[in-house]
């Protein structure tokens, strides 16, 4: 009886370990590309907008990409170069990456030249600005280990993530513009897969 009870306790402890991971949520305009030496894979159908990490210090590679309407059925995509920041993740705390969205494409281009993002504890109103750091030398072993980092890819979480982030100035892009935006980001194979999916659903 004691042996069974002990075995049950060990099994319960083993399966409870992932629950200590904390979640970092990203708005759709800030794309997580890499955590330490672990690359995050995105696809046309499945964008990663949250990453689960155990408490610690992590180096994130991010990219800013945004869409601005220029007129009827016209829009402009604004991208930044990938940049690195350091995030400190505390135990029992979930976070949102937030930023102040520009009012127009001109201001967005200025932002893209020097992106500024903050790490905000979920539920709080103030975030901690994250300084951009030089690209870390991942082969040196100086970067905090991220073997426990587990990207949580979810297409259903994209919409909810955008409503919980920093205030968005101006009207949000409509569904048609966003579809066109993501279409341009997709590879030829992903575009064909999307066409096949839409055709089959009719």
From TrEMBL:
Q: Which Pfam families does the entry mention?
A: DUF2057 (PF09829)
Q: Which UniProt keywords apply?
A: Signal
Signal peptide (UniProt feature, chain positions):
1-21
Q: So what family is this one in?
A: Belongs to the UPF0319 family.
* Protein's recorded name: DUF2057 domain-containing protein
- Species source reads Pseudoalteromonas prydzensis
